[in-house]
Amino acid sequence: MFDNYDIRYKIAIIWFLAFILLWIIFRNILPLKSMNYQLNNIQASIEQGDWKKADQYTEEFVHNFESNKFIIQINNATEALISFEHTVGQLKVTVKNKQDSSLEYVGALREMINLVVKPFSGP
């Protein structure tokens, strides 16, 4: 009825197309560009000493992260997401307290964002 090789090739092609489709969907849904833009704004505000704007941009960053958290969780390993959430919390507190160490957390988030927000980033 069916040749085993013919079915294997069809399954392999369907699996490959499904993977490409998932990668495109995650690439378009995940907020990598907007989060990087917000981190740039936070960093510039801190360097200029404008803590009020830095706090505003941090709130926007946290809101963007929280509103896309479910999609980010689907795409990621738990360890990377927990570290990212922890660093977001540290950034929020240090900006509210107007501490220069908040630049360290901006740098850490900039490094971690590729592990957390890119589609199928892997460890």
Automatic annotation (TrEMBL):
The chain crosses the membrane at residues 12-30. It comes from the Bacteria. Keywords: Membrane, Transmembrane, Transmembrane helix. This is DUF4363 family protein. It comes from Clostridium manihotivorum. The lineage of its organism: Bacteria, Bacillati, Bacillota, Clostridia, Eubacteriales.
